[in-house]
Amino acid sequence: MSDPTLIRNGELQVDTWQRFTPSDDQALPADDGNWLVPLTVWLASHAQLRTRQHPVGIFLEPADEPLELADHGAFDATGVALIAIDFPQYTDGRGYSIAQILRTRLKYTGELRAVGDVMIDTIHYQARCGFDSFLLKPGHRPEEALAAFNAFTVHYQQTYPKPRQVA
Fold first, then answer.
1. In whole angstroms, what is the distance from residue 106 CA to residue 73 CA?
2. 54-80: per-residue pLDDT in tens?
3. How far apart are CA 160 and CA 47, in angstroms?
4. Tens digit of pLDDT for each residue in 16-33?
5. What is the DSSP letter of 30?
6. Please, is 134 exposed, middle or buried when counting C-beta atoms within 10 Å of its C-beta (0-12, 13-18, 19+)?
């Protein structure tokens, strides 16, 4: 068993999820474990994927449109174990925007995982945008990453602005 590199619910855990890449021979992953499927696979096969014994996770890349999930059962109580958002480089901020869209506009309340170039320096900010699990980049010390959540005790923004109620 490998060392824990996943921070979930404030604890270190071993990541048991695999990323599925469709091929000409296999359009869907086997129903034998924890799979993250790309948005295109979810959109094409969401009805079938939602009936599996093992719920799948949805893998979003920075160029994916999270609003497409709203009409395809991603926010129902069954069928989706988590949504993982890729950070291909720590300087790519699109994942923060996707997280905000999922949490605020689409009211997604399930697990939201940061994957890819997830570093100790970024997880505090990712948590502020709605992420609740973090798959650390190889080579980063998980214990230091846990401590990073307490690095800042004061924030400039207490929360993201909410629209005013129209009378």
1. 12
2. 889 999 999 999 999 887 666 665 678
3. 34
4. 999 998 888 888 888 888
5. -
6. buried
Q: How sure is the predictor about 163, in pLDDT bands with cuts at 50, 70 and 90?
A: very low
Q: Evaluate the CA torsion angle 60, 65, 66, 69 in order and state its sign.
A: negative
What pTM value is reported for the model?
0.84
| C-alpha closest to that of 56 among 74, 72, 71, 70 | 74
Contact residues for 162 (Cβ-Cβ < 8 A; gap 6+): none
**DSSP state, residue 140:** S
In whole angstroms, give the CA distance from residue 40 to residue 28: 11
Burial (0-12, 13-18, 19+ Cβ within 10 Å), 94: middle
Between the alpha carbon of residue 141 and those of residues 6, 11, 53, 120, the distances in Å are 11, 13, 34, 8
Pinpoint the alpha helices (H) of 6-93.
39-49
Rg of the chain on CA atoms, in Å: 16
What ranges in 8-163 are assigned the alpha helix state H? Answer: 39-49, 94-100, 120-128, 142-148
